[in-house]
Design goal:
The complex is a heterodimer of chains A (552) and B (319).
Chain A lengths: L27 H5 L4 H29 L10 H37 L7 H20 L16 H4 L4 H28 L12 H33 L12 H35 L6 H14 L15 H29 L8 H24 L1 H7 L3 H31 L5 H27 L14 H27 L58
Chain B lengths: L13 H34 L16 H28 L8 E8 L2 E6 L4 E3 L1 E5 L3 E8 L4 E5 L4 E5 L5 E6 L4 E7 L11 E7 L1 H9 L6 H11 L2 H4 L18 E3 L5 E3 L2 H9 L22 H13 L14
Parallel strand pairs in B: 1-5, 4-10
Antiparallel strand pairs in B: 1-2, 2-3, 5-8, 6-7, 6-9, 9-10, 11-12
Helix pairs in contact in B: 1-2, 4-7, 6-7
The chains are: A mainly alpha (552), B alpha+beta (319).
Chain lengths: 552, 319
């Protein structure tokens, strides 16, 4: 607490006397009507955890089905519904809201030294829209399910039966939930930074959330419009995408990926944001290349809008358009690489402590590197033709979407868990969980790269017997991954049996959220906190703000 | 284990060698970068592990020099890889003029192919080795994708339009054909075989099929559907004459132009009002419900065969 300063009062542990945000006020109604960003973040966290388990169960069904080349436990129609729900739930209900909804809502105002987000009621609305969208998505189960894949390609999606229309409206509603979060974060970063905290004195988590929010509010409306057109095509046969009615099926793919590729950056930028907090704290060293990391977030957000058609190299698009999109896709590798290099440079000459959050951070760096490098095979035109729509793509996007986003969520969750709940989990079990998740993840998806480069198409119910050994290896990996995740969940939940309020700042963090008690009071800080030194200045007597050297 | 798991399928087309070189270059670059990054992380994690709580390092100053170095080097490498890979792709994007044309019609969940000589196949495709084959493909229902891993080639098949794919098989053999765009319940069952044959075997195989080429079938349809009534060869009909049309640039009502390729002819049969030739009225009805995609293919082949005859030779001849 010594280096945390507030204008009035001393903040810190004395705040316990006022009761923390978890208990004050009490009662389920006070939670459901709360406008406290911390409570909304916690409710997002539990919702996302629930849907991660649901989506994970669908994943396990897929892996069990693939133990044999033909039918194992379900028929092809069921298989198609299972992989569609796995994808739709994981993308729209888990990965996109995961870090902004839970960690972002909880930590962003604290990191900025604010009392709340800029629009607390809209924030609660975002959570309710999430729940409504989630119920609609689950409602499709009672309408015969959805068998289009999460990508809803026309004309299959406009002609097949089942609950496609309801699922499309669910994604539409979830889109607004995402937009509301984005609007809030942009306004919060602009208007609610603590006095004296300039743009380049913000913790980098805020830059990451800000860049994410830009994409959320600019790209998501396009998805909304596209999905409405798809629904109208199904209901009224208006002929936008259906070739029989004079429409163009490939147009749907352009519209869809114009959102859904930037959406990949909605998934990855928050993950990177978490890394920029965890790695310096556990290296006890100022982040290397602050401005390079901040600007590369914005660069990713902007260039990310111009790479969508790399999903469509063999879709019947002009080959010259393909060349341009390939070029831009290679180009966007650079800002991501800059971040990785700067994080590694942060570790250089640091004082590194391999606690659970840092293990997840290192796990992220390794998985994201694999995901990024294999992305080059798909950005490259001549090799993408061979690899497109094979398991190579499946493995690649699981490395960047799950391997990066969910691992970063776990890193951030272990990092801020004591801040959120004022309780500490068991460190040894946390580390064992992190290692199991890392091993399980690689065992699941590395074999899928090999399957794909050998020609195994994705979304195949039956497959050639020559791929069975690799599929079995992948399923064994998935079991290890599941064990690791459940151990981690149990370990975190077991912390509730421990005493509360014993750990205000367990990691020695210097950002403002550590300047208040753990868990914080309802109003976050006693008085207005002012940052007196940089967010990553770990020296015993930090240099005052404005005088320390920011890298970059 | 003794279990040998190759990373890629066998090479059986002219492009596969170049694509595989690119794959290996990317693999080498990836392994190198992964080794450097993993190595640095592991080394730093051990070398700079915290030894005491008081072990707080001084902040390191970083100028822009280092940032520029690790921007420029990866940028150069990725651009080189982009250029190399794109040049392979673009060099092979146009089929050679003398490529053997075969039509493919995909539907849930079946591949139908039509050779110019009149042979039809289902879920099989016989092709000659050593010469280029151009597939002109369309779908009767949803999007499919024609993929032969041994040829390193793949192309989506979109309803409502023709997409082309070409390759030159280099090795006789039997290769897997997959549908690689999700198309419903039996997507994974929509596969077949490509038989690459020595040219003489291919000729024998073709000769063993039914007589009556695509062009002849198309000519018969052209009569049966009474196309001939308006599309008179002498140009005196209510619709344009079709002889010598294929490959020409056509002036349309409104001043736009279009190249008369397979896709244009197909569109003009199924949606005649979409692109009307300058000087003509949009009188032609759609044949959407009267001809199948396979019959459209026969008509296209026939119209494509109508080359302009040398002067003074063709008077009075009707197809």
């Amino acid at each position: 607490m010594a280096d945390a300063h507030t204008l009035t009062g001393t903040g810190g542990a004395t705040a316990h006397a006022h009761g923390d945000y978890l208990d004050d006020p009490k009662g389920i109604k006070s939670w459901l009507t709360t406008v406290d960003h911390k409570r909304i973040g916690i409710m997002y966290l539990w919702s996302i955890t629930f849907f991660m388990i649901v989506g994970g169960l669908f994943a396990m069904l897929i892996r069990i089905e693939h133990l044999t080349p033909a039918k194992t436990i379900m028929d092809a129609e069921m298989y198609n519904r299972v992989f569609t729900l796995h994808g739709a739930i994981m993308v729209f209900l888990v990965i996109i809201p995961a870090i902004p909804g839970s960690l972002g809502n909880f930590a962003l105002p604290l990191l900025l030294g604010a009392k709340d987000v800029a629009f607390p009621r809209i924030n609660l609305m975002s959570l309710y829209l999430y729940w409504i969208g989630a119920l609609m998505a689950l409602g499709t189960l009672f309408m015969g399910g959805v068998d289009t894949g999460w990508t809803f390609y026309t004309p299959y999606s406009t002609t097949t039966g089942g609950g496609v229309t309801l699922m499309v409206f669910a994604a539409f509603v979830l889109g607004f939930s995402s937009i509301f979060t984005g609007v809030n974060f942009i306004a919060t970063v602009h208007k609610l930074r603590a006095p004296g905290m300039g743009w380049f004195e913000m913790p980098l988590f805020c830059w990451g959330m800000y860049s994410t929010a830009l994409i959320q509010i600019l790209a998501t409306p396009v998805l909304g419009i596209t999905l409405l057109l798809l629904a109208m095509e199904r209901l009224f046969h208006i002929g936008i995408f259906d070739a029989q009615l004079g429409g163009d099926p490939v147009l749907f793919q352009h519209f869809f990926w114009f959102y859904s590729h930037p959406a990949v950056y909605i998934m990855i930028l928050p993950a990177m944001a978490v890394m920029s907090e965890v790695i310096p704290v556990f290296s006890k060293k100022t982040i290397f290349g602050y401005k390079a990391i901040a600007f590369s977030s914005v660069a990713i957000a902007l260039v990310g809008f111009f790479v969508w058609a790399h999903h469509m190299f063999v879709a019947g698009m002009s080959v010259y358009a393909g060349a341009i999109f390939s070029f831009l896709t290679f180009f966007i590798a650079i800002p991501s690489a800059i971040k990785v290099f700067n994080w590694i440079a942060t570790m250089w000459q640091g004082s590194i402590e391999l606690k659970t959050p840092m293990l997840y951070a290192i796990s992220f760096l390794l998985l994201f590197t694999i995901g990024g490098l294999t992305g080059m095979f798909l950005a490259s035109l001549s090799t993408d033709v061979h690899l497109h729509d094979t398991y190579f793509v499946v493995a690649h996007f699981h490395y960047v979407m799950a391997g990066s986003n969910l691992i970063a969520l776990l890193a951030g969750l272990h990092y801020w868990w004591p801040k959120m709940f004022g309780r500490m989990y068991d460190e040894s079990l946390g580390r064992i969980g992190a290692v199991l998740v890392f091993i399980g993840f690689n065992a699941t998806f590395l074999p899928q790269f090999v399957m794909g480069s050998r020609g195994m198409p994705r979304r195949y119910f039956n497959y050639l017997p020559q791929f069975q050994a690799l599929h079995v290896a992948s399923t064994i990996g998935a079991v290890i991954l599941a064990v690791g995740l459940f151990l981690t969940l149990a370990n975190l939940l077991a912390s509730f049996r421990r005493p509360k309020g014993m750990v205000d700042n367990p990691w020695g963090g210097k950002t403002l959220e550590w300047a208040t008690s753990s868990p914080p009071t309802t109003h976050n800080f006693e008085g207005q906190p002012v940052p007196l030194h940089g967010p990553y200045d770990y020296r015993p007597v930090p240099a005052p703000i404005g005088s320390e050297v920011h890298t970059g | 284990m003794g279990l040998k798991i190759p990373l890629i399928p066998e090479q059986a087309s002219s492009i596969s060698i170049e694509v595989d070189q690119m794959l290996y270059v990317l693999l080498a670059a990836s392994v190198l970068f992964a080794a450097l990054i993993f190595g640095a992380i592991c080394y730093f994690a051990i070398r700079y592990r915290r030894r005491s709580e008081l072990d707080i390092p001084e902040p390191v100053k970083s100028g822009w020099a280092l940032q520029i170095i690790w921007i420029v080097i990866p940028l150069g490498l990725t651009m080189a890889m982009f250029g190399w890979s794109a040049s392979i792709f673009l060099n092979h994007s146009q089929p050679p003029r003398d490529a053997t044309q075969i039509f493919v019609v995909a539907k849930q969940w079946m591949w139908k192919s039509q050779h110019m000589e009149g042979v039809r196949e289902i879920d099989e495709l016989h092709i000659p080795v050593g010469s280029s084959v151009k597939l002109t493909m369309t779908s009767e229902d949803v999007i499919h994708s024609f993929s032969v891993p041994a040829f390193r080639t793949k192309q989506d098949i979109v309803p409502g339009r023709y997409t082309n794919l070409w390759f030159t098989a280099t090795k006789p053999g039997k290769y897997r054909l997959f549908c690689t765009e999700y198309c419903g319940a039996n997507h994974s069952g929509m596969n077949g075989w490509v038989y690459a044959m020595e040219p003489k075997d291919y000729a024998l195989w073709l000769a063993g099929g039914p007589k009556g080429s695509l062009v002849a079938e198309g000519a018969k349809l052209f009569q049966d559907l009474a196309c001939i009534k308006c599309h008179r060869d002498d140009g005196g009909g209510r619709c344009p004459a079709l002889r010598g049309l294929f490959g020409q640039t056509i002036l349309l009502t409104g001043g736009a132009t279009v190249e008369a390729d397979e896709a244009y002819i197909r569109e003009s049969i199924l949606d005649p009002a979409a692109k009307v030739v300058d000087g003509y009225q949009p009188l032609m009805p759609t044949f959407r419900d009267r001809v199948s995609e396979e019959e459209v293919v026969e008509l296209v082949a026939y119209i494509k065969s109508l080359v302009r005859k040398p002067q003074g030779d063709a008077a009075g001849q009707k197809p």
